[in-house]
Specification:
Distance between the termini: 47 Å
Bound molecules: zinc ion
Structural class: alpha/beta
Strand order of the largest sheet: 2-1-5-3-4
Number of strands: 12
Shape: elongated
Oligomer: single chain
Length: about 250
């Protein structure tokens, strides 16, 4: 059986079996196999990979692995400029839009809170998620790396964190979104855009205290939910400040 040397870098190691992390290892392969198929068979979805070097040269996903190849697999680079090399992923989507798997309900609310177009339902099937991501050109966020191995998915990201606030930070960093946060532009419940509304037009739907204290209101263009800058708003503002500081939440 033919064999190739593999080394995965940085956070890609999280997706590998323990004995293959942070080391160069030999892996056998059948006669004709692409570097993409081999990488995914080892556990790393193509959406997580930004650069593959074979014997020091960058290759694309269709490269056919040869006996004795030395293969280095890199994740998305935050700071290193690799433009002279071949980037594997398609061009970044101009406007970041998301579709989330059923485990990411809290994350979906956070992303909407930050103004990002985020589809989420607690009953989406895997098939459906992959299709929506492809048809609507949405970035698929999921806790399941297997979902990202579907070839129809071109833009996706495996959410490694389990804490929702850490998840938001992970997404903001991965897609470099700190500069485009637009808080309180979207309905947390249904994702539609909010618009200003006159107090007199929503008066009968406000709790008594709210009527007295607040004068500025927004309404969801889709589900009609009314928003104002109450306690909840201030808590969210504090969270946004923390997220913007780009430091670990602790
Ligand atoms: Zn709504």
């Amino acid at each position: 059986m033919k064999q190739a040397h593999f080394r995965f870098y940085a956070e890609l190691n999280d997706l590998l079996p323990a004995d293959k992390r942070q080391v160069t290892f030999m892996h056998p392969f059948p006669n004709r196999v692409s570097v993409k198929d081999m990488t995914e068979a080892l556990g790393v979805p193509h959406t997580e990979v930004d650069l593959i070097l074979v014997n020091g040269e960058s290759v694309d996903f269709s490269y056919r692995v040869q006996d004795g190849d030395r293969i280095s697999v890199y994740p998305v680079f935050e700071s290193i400029d690799i433009t002279p090399l071949v980037r594997l992923r398609p061009q970044p989507l101009r406007e970041p839009r998301f579709v989330l798997d059923t485990h990411l309900g809290r994350l979906s609310r956070y992303l909407r809170m930050l103004g990002f177009d985020t589809l989420y339902r607690n009953d989406y099937a895997d098939e459906e998620l992959a299709q929506i991501s492809s048809d609507e050109r949405r970035i698929l966020l999921t806790r399941d790396p297997g979902l990202l191995k579907r070839s129809v998915v071109t833009h996706g990201h495996w959410i490694r964190e389990s804490d929702p606030q850490r998840q938001v930070r992970q997404v903001l960093q991965r897609f470099d979104l700190f500069g485009v946060i637009a808080p309180f532009a979207r309905c947390l419940r249904c994702n539609a855009l909010l618009q200003p509304v006159r107090k007199q037009d929503v008066l009968d739907r406000l709790p008594p205290m709210t009527k007295e204290v607040y004068d500025e209101f927004h309404i969801c263009s889709e589900c009609g939910r009314v928003y104002w800058k109450g306690t909840h708003y201030r808590r969210m503002q504090q969270l946004i400040e923390r997220l913007r500081q780009r430091e670990p939440t602790g």
